[in-house]
Amino acid sequence: MLFLNYIIFIWMLHQNIISTEGHKNLIKTVKKKLKKLIEPRNDDIAQVVDYETNEERIKNMTVCCIDISDKKYFISIVLEINHYFNPITSDKNPKKLTIPIYTTENRIVDGMLNGIARVLENEETGISLWKKMIEKTKTSSEALEILGSKKKFKLYTEKQYKSGFLLTYLDFYILSVVIDKCIYYYEHDFNIWMFFRKNWPNYSTLDMKNEKCIYIAVKEKFVYSITEVVDEVLKLKE
After folding, report:
1. Coil/strand/helix, residue 95
2. 9 or 74, higher pLDDT
3. What pLDDT shows up at residue 156?
4. Which of 90, 97, 134, 216 could form a disulfide linkage to 83, CB 3.0–4.6 angstroms apart?
5. Is residue 160 a part of any domain in this protein?
6. Rounded distance between C-alpha atoms, residue 238 and residue 236, angstroms
7. Are 24 and 136 members of one domain?
8. What confidence tier does 109 reach under pLDDT thresholds 50, 70, 90?
9. Which of 116, 137, 131, 139 has the alpha carbon at shortest distance from 185?
10. Measuring CA to CA, which residue among 89, 36, 65 is closest to residue 184?
Protein backbone atom coordinates (compact mmCIF):
# COMPACT_ATOMS: atom_id res chain seq x y z
CA MET A 1 0.00 0.00 0.00
CA LEU A 2 2.85 2.37 0.80
CA PHE A 3 4.43 1.69 -2.62
CA LEU A 4 1.11 2.49 -4.32
CA ASN A 5 0.66 5.69 -2.34
CA TYR A 6 4.17 6.76 -3.28
CA ILE A 7 3.54 6.15 -7.00
CA ILE A 8 0.25 8.10 -6.86
CA PHE A 9 1.98 10.92 -5.02
CA ILE A 10 4.74 11.23 -7.68
CA TRP A 11 2.13 11.10 -10.47
CA MET A 12 0.18 13.93 -8.85
CA LEU A 13 3.32 16.04 -8.71
CA HIS A 14 3.99 15.49 -12.41
CA GLN A 15 0.39 16.35 -13.27
CA ASN A 16 0.61 19.56 -11.23
CA ILE A 17 -2.33 18.39 -9.14
CA ILE A 18 -0.35 19.36 -6.06
CA SER A 19 2.52 21.82 -5.77
CA THR A 20 6.11 20.70 -5.24
CA GLU A 21 6.60 23.57 -2.83
CA GLY A 22 6.61 22.43 0.78
CA HIS A 23 6.55 18.72 -0.13
CA LYS A 24 10.28 17.96 -0.07
CA ASN A 25 10.10 16.81 3.54
CA LEU A 26 7.11 14.62 2.72
CA ILE A 27 9.06 12.95 -0.11
CA LYS A 28 11.97 12.29 2.27
CA THR A 29 9.59 10.79 4.81
CA VAL A 30 7.99 8.47 2.25
CA LYS A 31 11.42 7.35 0.98
CA LYS A 32 12.56 6.69 4.53
CA LYS A 33 9.49 4.52 5.17
CA LEU A 34 10.09 2.64 1.93
CA LYS A 35 13.67 2.02 3.00
CA LYS A 36 12.46 0.57 6.30
CA LEU A 37 10.14 -1.77 4.44
CA ILE A 38 12.93 -3.00 2.18
CA GLU A 39 15.77 -3.25 4.69
CA PRO A 40 15.57 -6.17 7.16
CA ARG A 41 15.23 -5.29 10.82
CA ASN A 42 17.51 -6.83 13.42
CA ASP A 43 14.78 -8.90 15.00
CA ASP A 44 13.85 -10.21 11.53
CA ILE A 45 17.26 -11.85 11.29
CA ALA A 46 18.16 -12.86 14.83
CA GLN A 47 17.87 -11.62 18.38
CA VAL A 48 20.51 -8.96 19.00
CA VAL A 49 21.09 -8.87 22.75
CA ASP A 50 21.78 -5.45 24.18
CA TYR A 51 23.13 -6.60 27.52
CA GLU A 52 22.96 -3.28 29.31
CA THR A 53 19.38 -2.63 28.20
CA ASN A 54 18.23 -6.18 28.92
CA GLU A 55 19.86 -6.17 32.34
CA GLU A 56 17.88 -3.06 33.22
CA ARG A 57 14.66 -4.53 31.79
CA ILE A 58 15.12 -7.75 33.74
CA LYS A 59 15.68 -5.77 36.93
CA ASN A 60 12.50 -3.74 36.42
CA MET A 61 10.31 -6.50 34.99
CA THR A 62 7.13 -7.36 36.89
CA VAL A 63 4.54 -10.12 36.75
CA CYS A 64 0.95 -9.09 37.38
CA CYS A 65 -2.54 -10.56 37.48
CA ILE A 66 -6.08 -9.21 37.24
CA ASP A 67 -7.37 -7.28 40.24
CA ILE A 68 -10.84 -5.84 40.90
CA SER A 69 -10.18 -3.72 43.99
CA ASP A 70 -11.21 -0.73 41.88
CA LYS A 71 -14.97 -1.20 41.61
CA LYS A 72 -15.22 0.75 38.36
CA TYR A 73 -12.47 -1.04 36.40
CA PHE A 74 -10.57 -4.26 36.67
CA ILE A 75 -6.86 -3.58 36.79
CA SER A 76 -3.63 -5.47 37.43
CA ILE A 77 -1.51 -5.94 40.54
CA VAL A 78 1.94 -7.46 41.08
CA LEU A 79 1.79 -11.19 41.77
CA GLU A 80 4.42 -11.92 44.42
CA ILE A 81 5.23 -15.57 43.73
CA ASN A 82 8.13 -17.23 41.92
CA HIS A 83 7.64 -17.34 38.16
CA TYR A 84 9.36 -19.71 35.76
CA PHE A 85 9.89 -20.14 32.06
CA ASN A 86 8.59 -23.65 31.42
CA PRO A 87 6.86 -23.87 27.99
CA ILE A 88 4.51 -26.75 27.23
CA THR A 89 6.52 -27.48 24.07
CA SER A 90 9.88 -27.78 25.85
CA ASP A 91 11.48 -30.69 27.70
CA LYS A 92 14.16 -28.48 29.29
CA ASN A 93 14.29 -27.79 33.00
CA PRO A 94 12.36 -24.70 34.07
CA LYS A 95 14.33 -21.50 34.64
CA LYS A 96 13.52 -18.14 36.13
CA LEU A 97 11.16 -16.07 34.01
CA THR A 98 12.82 -12.96 32.60
CA ILE A 99 12.25 -11.06 29.35
CA PRO A 100 11.46 -12.69 25.98
CA ILE A 101 13.77 -13.33 23.06
CA TYR A 102 12.01 -12.48 19.79
CA THR A 103 12.69 -14.30 16.53
CA THR A 104 11.02 -14.16 13.14
CA GLU A 105 10.25 -17.88 13.26
CA ASN A 106 8.10 -17.37 16.35
CA ARG A 107 6.11 -14.45 15.00
CA ILE A 108 2.35 -15.08 14.79
CA VAL A 109 0.88 -13.55 11.64
CA ASP A 110 -2.61 -15.05 11.47
CA GLY A 111 -4.15 -14.04 14.79
CA MET A 112 -3.17 -14.74 18.37
CA LEU A 113 -5.72 -17.52 18.91
CA ASN A 114 -4.50 -19.39 15.84
CA GLY A 115 -0.95 -19.10 17.17
CA ILE A 116 -1.96 -20.44 20.57
CA ALA A 117 -3.86 -23.27 18.91
CA ARG A 118 -0.66 -24.33 17.14
CA VAL A 119 1.29 -24.23 20.41
CA LEU A 120 -1.25 -26.65 21.92
CA GLU A 121 -0.41 -29.13 19.12
CA ASN A 122 -3.87 -30.69 19.09
CA GLU A 123 -6.93 -30.37 16.87
CA GLU A 124 -7.90 -26.94 18.14
CA THR A 125 -8.13 -23.91 15.84
CA GLY A 126 -8.53 -20.24 16.63
CA ILE A 127 -12.25 -20.44 15.84
CA SER A 128 -12.85 -23.55 17.94
CA LEU A 129 -11.05 -21.98 20.90
CA TRP A 130 -13.09 -18.79 20.61
CA LYS A 131 -16.38 -20.71 20.51
CA LYS A 132 -15.39 -22.61 23.65
CA MET A 133 -14.39 -19.35 25.34
CA ILE A 134 -17.81 -17.84 24.61
CA GLU A 135 -19.59 -20.88 26.05
CA LYS A 136 -17.32 -20.97 29.11
CA THR A 137 -17.89 -17.28 29.81
CA LYS A 138 -21.66 -17.82 30.03
CA THR A 139 -21.19 -20.09 33.06
CA SER A 140 -18.18 -18.36 34.62
CA SER A 141 -18.82 -16.75 37.99
CA GLU A 142 -15.29 -15.31 37.84
CA ALA A 143 -16.07 -13.54 34.53
CA LEU A 144 -19.16 -11.95 36.08
CA GLU A 145 -17.13 -10.86 39.11
CA ILE A 146 -14.34 -9.41 36.96
CA LEU A 147 -16.75 -7.50 34.72
CA GLY A 148 -18.56 -6.13 37.73
CA SER A 149 -22.15 -6.03 36.48
CA LYS A 150 -24.73 -8.22 34.74
CA LYS A 151 -25.08 -5.60 32.01
CA LYS A 152 -21.37 -5.72 31.14
CA PHE A 153 -21.47 -9.50 31.42
CA LYS A 154 -24.35 -9.72 28.94
CA LEU A 155 -22.62 -7.41 26.45
CA TYR A 156 -19.44 -9.44 26.71
CA THR A 157 -21.14 -12.80 26.14
CA GLU A 158 -23.05 -11.45 23.14
CA LYS A 159 -19.97 -10.38 21.18
CA GLN A 160 -19.33 -12.24 17.97
CA TYR A 161 -16.15 -14.02 16.92
CA LYS A 162 -13.47 -11.96 15.22
CA SER A 163 -10.04 -13.40 14.56
CA GLY A 164 -8.46 -10.97 16.95
CA PHE A 165 -4.93 -9.60 16.89
CA LEU A 166 -5.11 -8.94 20.61
CA LEU A 167 -7.24 -10.39 23.38
CA THR A 168 -8.52 -8.60 26.46
CA TYR A 169 -7.30 -9.66 29.90
CA LEU A 170 -10.64 -11.31 30.52
CA ASP A 171 -10.32 -13.21 27.22
CA PHE A 172 -6.92 -14.49 28.30
CA TYR A 173 -8.31 -15.64 31.64
CA ILE A 174 -11.22 -17.47 30.03
CA LEU A 175 -8.83 -19.05 27.52
CA SER A 176 -6.59 -20.33 30.32
CA VAL A 177 -9.63 -22.03 31.86
CA VAL A 178 -10.76 -23.51 28.51
CA ILE A 179 -7.37 -25.05 27.67
CA ASP A 180 -6.51 -25.76 31.34
CA LYS A 181 -3.09 -24.14 30.92
CA CYS A 182 -1.48 -21.14 32.56
CA ILE A 183 -0.70 -18.26 30.20
CA TYR A 184 1.95 -15.58 30.51
CA TYR A 185 1.34 -12.58 28.25
CA TYR A 186 4.22 -10.09 27.93
CA GLU A 187 3.58 -6.46 27.04
CA HIS A 188 6.93 -5.19 25.78
CA ASP A 189 6.14 -1.47 26.06
CA PHE A 190 5.32 -1.83 29.76
CA ASN A 191 7.85 -4.58 30.59
CA ILE A 192 5.11 -6.60 32.28
CA TRP A 193 4.11 -10.26 32.14
CA MET A 194 0.40 -10.74 32.80
CA PHE A 195 -0.40 -14.09 34.43
CA PHE A 196 -3.63 -16.00 33.71
CA ARG A 197 -4.66 -19.31 35.25
CA LYS A 198 -7.78 -21.08 36.44
CA ASN A 199 -8.99 -20.55 40.01
CA TRP A 200 -8.59 -16.77 39.91
CA PRO A 201 -7.84 -14.94 42.19
CA ASN A 202 -6.32 -17.67 44.38
CA TYR A 203 -2.75 -17.32 43.16
CA SER A 204 -0.81 -16.19 46.24
CA THR A 205 0.29 -19.68 47.31
CA LEU A 206 0.91 -21.23 43.87
CA ASP A 207 4.10 -23.17 43.21
CA MET A 208 4.71 -22.71 39.49
CA LYS A 209 8.09 -24.43 39.17
CA ASN A 210 6.79 -27.62 37.58
CA GLU A 211 3.77 -26.23 35.79
CA LYS A 212 3.90 -26.02 31.99
CA CYS A 213 2.61 -22.76 30.53
CA ILE A 214 2.13 -20.83 27.28
CA TYR A 215 4.17 -17.67 26.73
CA ILE A 216 2.92 -14.98 24.35
CA ALA A 217 4.36 -11.50 23.77
CA VAL A 218 3.54 -8.34 21.84
CA LYS A 219 6.30 -6.07 20.56
CA GLU A 220 5.85 -3.26 18.05
CA LYS A 221 2.39 -4.58 17.11
CA PHE A 222 3.76 -8.06 16.34
CA VAL A 223 2.67 -11.11 18.32
CA TYR A 224 5.22 -13.78 19.24
CA SER A 225 5.02 -17.26 20.66
CA ILE A 226 7.98 -17.16 23.05
CA THR A 227 10.27 -20.20 23.13
CA GLU A 228 13.19 -18.65 25.02
CA VAL A 229 13.95 -15.86 27.48
CA VAL A 230 17.13 -13.94 28.21
CA ASP A 231 19.28 -15.53 30.93
CA GLU A 232 19.17 -13.69 34.21
CA VAL A 233 22.96 -13.71 34.60
CA LEU A 234 24.27 -11.80 31.57
CA LYS A 235 27.86 -11.85 30.42
CA LEU A 236 29.45 -8.52 29.61
CA LYS A 237 30.45 -7.84 26.02
CA GLU A 238 34.08 -8.55 25.34
Report:
1. strand
2. 74
3. 73
4. 97
5. yes
6. 6
7. no
8. confident
9. 116
10. 65
- DSSP secondary structure string for all residues of 4-71: HHHHHHHHHHHTTSS-STT-HHHHHHHHHHHHHHHSPPHHHH-----HHHHHHHHHH-EEEEEE--SS
pLDDT in tens, 118-145: 888 888 888 888 888 888 887 888 887 8
Question: Which of 39-53, 105-119, 138-152: highest mean pLDDT?
Answer: 105-119
Q: Which residues pair with 96 in a beta bridge?
A: 84
The pLDDT of residue 196: 95
Distance CA 63, CA 191 (A): 9
CATH of the domain at 216: 3.90.70
From 118, 131, 123, 63, select the one nearest 88 (Cα to Cα): 118
In a domain, 233, yes or no: no
For residue 96, tell me if it sits in a domain: yes
- Write out the residue range of the structural domain in which residue 9 sits: 2-38
**Is 86 within the bounds of a domain?**
yes
Cβ-based burial of 226 (10 A; exposed 0-12, middle 13-18, buried ≥19): buried
Q: Which amino acid is at 51?
A: Y
Q: Could you tell me the pLDDT band of residue 73, with boundaries at 50, 70 and 90?
A: low
Shared domain for 152 and 131, answered yes or no, is: yes
pLDDT tens digits along 8-24: 444 444 444 444 444 44
Q: Considering only residues 7 and 149, tell me which one the structure prediction assigns the higher pLDDT.
A: 149
Is-contact 78 63, C-beta < 8 A? yes
| Total residues found in the chain within this entry | 238
